Amino acid sequence: MTPADRDRLDREYNARASVPSFEAEYARYVAASGEAQSRLERVADLAYDTASGETLDLYPAGPDSPLFLWIHGGYWRALSKDDNAFPALGLVPKGISVAVLNYSLAPAVHLDEIVRQTRAALAWLHANATRFGLSSRRIHIGGSSAGGHLGGMLLAKGWQQDFGLPEDIIASALLLSGLMDLELLIHTHINSWMNLDIEAARRNSPLKLIPARSKAQLQASVGGLESDAFKGQTATYLEAWTSAGHAGRAIAMPNYNHFDVALSLREPDGPLAKAVAAAC
Questions:
Q1: pLDDT by residue (tens digit) across 103-119?
Q2: Where are the domains of the chain?
Q3: Which of 14, 118, 124, 142 has the smallest number of CB atoms closer than 10 Å to its CB?
Q4: pLDDT surpasses 90 at 59
Q5: What is the pTM of this model?
């Protein structure tokens, strides 16, 4: 790969540089999440994984309500459940309970461990949902950017039995701007904190791990103002998913950037909240 190719990839995958002010976008996340935490019932800091001690917050919507697990982005190295509570604003009013998880961040832990923690969170929710009066039959998931990647790793084949989960535990997945093929990231600045080699990139690439059978409905979206790299990742994964015979569709979000596409989940009547509700 030439230096020019590396520079192009760096620009294409530099999400923060794709907007006039990341600080302004992040401030909107914080404000909307604070609103969710103050307005809605919240069961905070539920430990889902004894090995890491990581926790999640639960925003219940009522007895036997469907459950949506939101996985935050931040290139696996930033953000948290505290600044990603905003999906609850759009989904709880629709009768959908929302769980928002923390996971350990790179470079303190490797991506393998982050993926394991995300799977542990899903297993904990399946085992404990009825304790909070929620449905545990099939869970809905969603995530943005790195969170979209981690959602893809929940859809991946071959891990559920190790966590005591049925293969069809996921009913639907809303994956936004997901990073589904990680091999190209090895050649970017992102690998300065991810420390991926080719084997790690391949075993953690959802594009290479699409199951032969799945009942999960994939709903994929990417902001129309995002780079060609993020658009391509989403389109390629959706095409591979549907080519395997699974249900999937694209949701057009033409006037959104890498950050506010996810933030639009705070709107009960927005296209993404409506899509999740329809899948529930």
A1: 999 999 999 999 999 99
A2: 3-279
A3: 14
A4: yes
A5: 0.98
